[in-house]
Amino acid sequence: MLLKTGTATPRATVPMRRRTRGLLALAATAAALPLLAQSPTAAASTAAAARAEEIVQGQCLVCHGAEGESSSPAFPRLAGQNAGYLARQLADYQSGKRKSSTMQPMVKALRAEDFMALGEYFATRPTHAHEMQEPQLAQAGRDVYVRGNPSSGVAACATCHGAEGHGSASLPRLAGQHAQYTERQLRQFHQRERTNDNAVMQAVASRMTDQEMKAVAAYLSGLK
């Protein structure tokens, strides 16, 4: 039978409309859930990143740069540095195991979780290729880095730090580091002035000549 003009909608269509509205409401709620609440892990990660940013802007920026690309060879580049290694170095500065009149005041009030947050922050900063200042010297450094010097007992650096100089969770990334900074660290190990990470490095550096240290540092500065 045809419906007359102005006749009410049949009752059978009312539940259908209600069901449709209900489904739309559920879909909207589901879409909004990620915005309404983060998981505890995600929330903690966000808080740690914010804390790291705060510390970098307040304390690290002047020497190391906001992105870890320090322009001065007096200070290491931290971009891409392995998070666990960097966190341990910060803890060693705080405890005095690693000496630095510049770094110790900077980390004095920080907590262990701050060290990890900073490690993760700099580990995720983009790395950049840097021009080798002394290509011929760097080529000699490559030989020492890759093969060592069997005649004097210098072990190949690549054995621990990797062929590309990227290190590991417990060992530093050396690729792209300022040549002067790397050379200075090798000399400190050689002279037993650096008092952390010294078990292996003092043994290796003590057998290196001044020229070998300079050459290896020059080679590493050009890696990415």
Quickly give the CATH architecture of the largest domain.
Answer: Orthogonal Bundle
Global outline = globular
Separate helix tally:
10
Look at the structure and give the CATH class of the largest domain.
Mainly Alpha
Topology-level CATH name of the largest domain? Cytochrome Bc1 Complex, Chain D, domain 2
The chain-level mean pLDDT equals 89
- Please give the radius of gyration in angstroms: 28 Å
How many strands, which pairing sense, and closed or not: the largest β-sheet? none
List unreliable stretches of 5+ residues. Answer: 1-5
Number of strands: 0
Distance between the termini: 81 Å
Helix proportion: 55-70%
**What's the CATH superfamily of the largest domain, by name?**
Cytochrome c-like domain
Strand residue percentage? under 5%
The SSE string, one letter per element, is HHHHHHHHHH
Structural class: mainly alpha
